[in-house]
Design brief:
This protein is an all-alpha fold. It has two domains: about 35 residues; about 60 residues. Helices cover about 70% and strands about 0% of the residues.
Length: about 120
């Protein structure tokens, strides 16, 4: 064994029965525990690194459904901003916060109208 290689012990489980069963299974299959653990860690790392699949917009129906989803989200945000605007205390009415809430509602309405026009287009 090379002096540069360090031996590392890995605790498979806190439960001695699980650790013993793992060791017995490895011995029974003729595979070292290190190989099994290394493969498990590689599989786990590969699983975590998998990129999410891009949405499929290959058909007009799917593109329209995606746009409808965006419109629905914008409508929810607009409703929330309208509540903020309408329930603003009197001492803040006419303030920068009040104006920002009104501008947000207006901008969201414009975005919804633009997307709805595109969504309704033949």
């Amino acid at each position: 064994m090379c002096a540069a290689i360090k031996r590392t012990q890995v605790k498979v489980s806190v439960d001695p029965e699980i650790a013993s069963a793992f060791k017995t299974a490895c011995i029974g299959s003729g595979t070292s525990m290190a190989v099994v653990l290394t493969q498990c860690m590689e599989d786990y790392a590969a699983h975590r690194k998998k990129p999410k699949a891009a949405p499929d917009y290959s058909t007009r129906r799917r593109r329209r459904a995606a746009i409808k989803g965006v419109i629905d989200n914008l409508e929810q945000m607009k409703a929330w901003e309208e509540q903020v605007y309408e329930n603003m205390p009197e001492n803040l009415q006419g303030s920068a916060a009040h104006d920002a809430a009104a501008e947000a509602v207006s901008s969201l309405e414009e975005a919804i109208e633009a997307l709805a026009a595109f969504w309704m287009a033949p």
